[in-house]
């Protein structure tokens, strides 16, 4: 019988298998169980990278970088393997490395396949040649053509393609009547002028909101004139504005008007926001008594909150710069944009006896900890049984992050009912969580399923009496579903300690469009040592799925308060770093489509990617 001996050469990070009759001096025999484990590890993600699972993050990163530098054309498959290891380890160091590599142009296999499909080329690139690609880059006006060719050129490591892609777009795409039509029907990107991807995403979104865009473009008709005799001071969010405040706000509108005009008429792939606009929006000139109002510096720990914080500043400044709406001479002035985003609601707080508090808020702050759906997060926001950490309408992103570090047993319970809905409903998924064991913050990468439409009928105050019995029944089902999820969380903990091999299949986020967990057939073999531990979890999962479907059936005719998803902001990276982009639905196109806005690149989202993006 042969013994299999294993050496690990640290300089190459590769497993070397040697067969012999006896172990070499200094090496030990490996029994069959160990050999099976080593063979399994060799074929795992670690083995594909030339590593073993007990290596440090630093060694794995070195191995990854060494292999990429050795053959850049295999970088997309290496990134896939490296990402798989990162998900298993939940390592922020590995996540930072992935983000750095992507920022330098390294692409994933999924991105490469999508780029091939863009040009109707087989996923594996069969039949592609430099000559074909050169023809494509010179002849295509399809949205996103250049970005997709950049992905292919990077993956192929073709110097001729890379040289062509470095040329200005106008040198590649010569004047052509077809291009005039293309630029007229496709939006432009915004150049990044220094860690401003979050601001670019926000500006692209606001440009698509008709009321804001038209008010800014026609600013002279609505702008404040604080120098006018008899001008009265304005009060916004409890703060009285001076003439100086209004003048500063008007300067932002002037810069925004210039940018929107460029975006409307430019015949180029992208335009650049002025440095002055960025400076004004990054200043902290909002209400002094408003906490968490302004965007943080680039090195702030919660950098991914910059979109919502910058939105707060911008809307505050717009309200200051434009005249309020006055319906009657003696009526109280109404902020021009308040009805656009603000939800009016009543909050019933249990503190010995119920108290009713009027709540107005422009953004729903939904706390994301585990894999879930947008509907469930909204249930947690509005329903009585949900803890206040996820349902407080008056909470800010910062207070919710702070509450995440506390025990939920000490939290008050609340019930929120909506009295008035706005034309545009804004939802903020808060992913920054606090690890009580390590006393550190981290970004939750939990999957949230996004439906194409959401309905808020069940939360309307007008329905609370008319549909009282029905809504109470639904709340009981939701309560049971929450209990099932808590029980499932409790049952996971001992399994984690026991190292169950099936645990990963149940607890790891599911990245496929079929987000619901699948129960294996009864005849599927499983290790006897874990079967008794896994079955209770599967039972909870099945009950959660059953309750979710029951609730969907119950709400089939609750479809008056309908919202269609218009824009989805996306952040890739950790709790204090990363890149923003935004998906926006273009319903004005001849064929409605989703577009991805990533700084200066605007590309059309295919059907496959659209389905993937429903699970954020």
TrEMBL record:
Organism domain of life: Eukaryota
Biased composition (Low complexity): 387-399
Region (Disordered): 385-411, 503-533
EC number: 3.4.19.12
UniProt KW Translocase keyword: no
MF-aspect GO terms: cysteine-type deubiquitinase activity; proteasome binding
GO biological process: proteasome-mediated ubiquitin-dependent protein catabolic process; protein deubiquitination; regulation of proteasomal protein catabolic process
Keyword Disulfide bond: no
Keywords, in A-Z order: Hydrolase, Protease, Thiol protease, Ubl conjugation pathway
Biased composition, class Basic and acidic residues, residue ranges: 400-409
Annotated catalysed reactions: Thiol-dependent hydrolysis of ester, thioester, amide, peptide and isopeptide bonds formed by the C-terminal Gly of ubiquitin (a 76-residue protein attached to proteins as an intracellular targeting signal)
Pfam families from the UniProt entry: RPT, UCH
Domain USP positions: 188-616
InterPro entries membership: Papain-like_cys_pep_sf, Peptidase_C19_UCH, UBP14-like, UCH_repeat_domain, USP, USP_CS
Listed name of the protein: ubiquitinyl hydrolase 1
Organism this protein belongs to: Linnemannia gamsii
Organism lineage: Eukaryota, Fungi, Fungi incertae sedis, Mucoromycota, Mortierellomycotina
